[in-house]
Amino acid sequence: MATGSVLMGLGVTVTLSTTTSLVVTMAPPERVGAVSGLSETGQKLGAACGVALLGTIGASVYRALILESTPGTAGAAAQSLSGAVREAGRLSEEPAAALLAAARDAFASGMRTAMVAAAIVIAALALAVPVFLRNAHRDHPAGAAPDREPVITG
Length: 154
What we know:
Blueprint: H1 2-26, H2 32-69, H3 76-79, H4 81-88, H5 93-132
C-alpha cells in the first residue's frame, strides 16, 4: 500500500504541477489569475467527481455480487464490507464465515472493477491529450518559448 501510495502521489504531483504550468503559461497575462483559479477549481472538482464515480462503481459491483452470492442478504451486509462484518458478528460461526468470505470477494471485485475503469479512462486521456494539445503553441513561432517563464503552483 505504501509503495503504491508514494508512486501515485509522485505521479499526481508531477501531473498537476505540469498541467497548471501549461495552463497558466498559455493564458494572456491579464487573465493569469482567473485562469489559475479555474484550473485549480477544475482539478478539485475532477478529483471529487472521480472519487464519487469510482466509489459508485465499486459499491454497485459489491452490492450485486454480495446479493448474488448470499441470497437473502439484506440491510447493512448488502451495503458495505463493514456492514457485512457487523452482520457476521450476529451470526453463528459457519454462516458468519460464509458471509465474510462472500463480502471480501465482492469488495475485492468491486475495487478491481473500479480500478480497471480508472485505468481505461487514464489510457484514453493519455491518448487524447496529444491530440487536444497539438496546437497549444500556435500563438508562438515554431520552437519559440512563450514571453514568460511557466509558473508552477500546487
